[in-house]
Write a structure and sequence with these properties.
By secondary structure, the chain is mainly alpha-helical. The chain is built from four helices and two strands, in the order E-E-H-H-H-H.
């Protein structure tokens, strides 16, 4: 599972390590289009998480086999992977 961004008040981590924020019902109703990107069946979410975990494990093994920098903790490594994923998604 990937490291989550620091949680702000009202935020929590939901199923599968997905970062979730809480909103009052009226605000959530008014912002529903912004808050819900694409609902998918739980089985597909589980498969996506399994594939993501497998890709993370392969990346960790590759980096362990050919280290390119100083060693780091697992949490630091996962935070770095998350940052790389966010930058890749933004481009």
């Amino acid at each position: 599972m990937r490291a989550a961004q620091p949680l702000a008040p009202g935020d929590r981590t939901g199923p599968y390590g997905v970062r979730m924020e809480t909103y009052p019902l009226a605000e959530a109703r008014d912002r529903l289009g912004q808050l819900v990107a694409a609902p998918i069946p739980t089985s597909e979410l589980e498969e996506l998480q399994r594939l993501r975990d497998a890709a993370d494990a392969a990346e960790a093994a590759a980096r362990e086999a050919a280290p390119t920098g100083p060693s780091m903790t697992h949490d630091d490594f996962m935070a770095r992977l998350e940052g790389e994923d966010l930058r890749a998604a933004a481009s």
